Amino acid sequence: MRALVIGGSGFIGRYLVRRLAEASGNEVFGTFRSRPPGTEVGSWHRVELTDASDLERLFSLSSPDVVVHLAAMADVGACEREPERAETVNVGATSAIAGLCQQYGARLVFVSTEYVFNGRRGFYREDEDANPTTTYGRTKWEAEREVARLALRWSIVRTSIVFGWPLQAHRNFGPWLVERLRSGQSYYAPTDVLRTPVYVEHLADGIARLVEGDYAGVHHIAGSDWVSMYDFALAIADGFQLDRGLVIPAEAWAQGGSDGNEGGEKLGLDSGRTFRLLGLSQHGLFEGIAAMRASGQNA
């Protein structure tokens, strides 16, 4: 199988490329925008997502059987500040990729986000209506619709907050908090922001199963535990034997949270159906943190 991972040099992408390359019979192509990942795993190619000719050359070179599209403008605040660029990167580029998948007869696995929901109730199922309240969420929802409209064979996978050691210079909440607590700095953790954290290797396993099989439709891949960011932070402190007293409960909405909704941001995904479909065990938060600690990277 020839697999093309667009955004393969990113945090999730590096784990996925490695996971796919480990399977016999796979030829894996990955993309980067500015800096090659410095690894012998996979075949790497520089691509500017918004350059149609770049994308066309990439597809011509790789002739993929399946494409995983991970690359996005994913900073929620940056999307609010630059909505036109968010539209170009998240919607325009995805539309072009979906069209090329149709042209080349490739399946498309598009990685989306819990932010397609409005964050008022949380623990959303795959069949619930999207209703984004942020520019990031809106552009990813529009991108999902472009995938369904243009690609002949497609899967959409939404995920929640992802944590794990970065294989390159990609920061995420888990290592950031470990570093902060180790240095004796406190963290004001929102008690009214709820997510379903997922360890990056568990997410990569789920996406790889979608790549290797043919599971059409919308899927959710996230952790089994629906927790506040306060509880998430406490679990990290406990898992790495750090001072949990440095994790201080706070209310995000009272401090001017991400969308200003009183009562905080209730996101998170119910992934039970997808894990049953894929025949995978769904891991909880403590299992993910234990796996992160056991991996030993940067620990």
What attributes characterize this protein structure?
single chain, 299 residues, alpha/beta, seven-stranded parallel beta sheet, three-stranded mixed beta sheet, 10 helices, globular
Question: Can you walk me through this structure?
Answer:
This protein has 299 residues and is of the alpha/beta class. Helix content is 40%, strand content 18%. It contains 10 helices and 14 strands. A 7-stranded parallel beta sheet has the order 3-2-1-4-5-6-11, with helices on both faces. A 3-stranded mixed beta sheet has the order 12-9-14. A two-stranded parallel sheet has the order 7-10. The chain is globular and about 55 Å long. About 2% of the residues have low confidence.
Cα radius of gyration in angstroms: 19 Å
Helix content: 25-40%
Number of H/I helices: 10
Averaged pLDDT: 92
Beta strand %: 15-25%
The main pleated sheet reads as: 7 strands, parallel
Low-confidence stretches: 255-261
Q: Layout of helices and strands, plus pairs?
A:
Layout: E1 2-6, H1 11-22, E2 27-32, E3 43-46, H2 52-62, E4 66-69, H3 76-81, H4 83-104, E5 107-113, H5 135-150, E6 154-159, E7 162-163, H6 173-182, E8 187-190, E9 193-195, E10 198-199, H7 200-212, E11 217-220, E12 227-228, H8 229-239, E13 247-250, E14 265-266, H9 272-278, H10 285-295
Parallel strand pairs: 1-2, 1-4, 2-3, 4-5, 5-6, 6-11, 7-10, 8-13, 9-14
Antiparallel strand pairs: 9-12
Helix pairs in contact: 1-7, 2-4, 4-5, 8-10
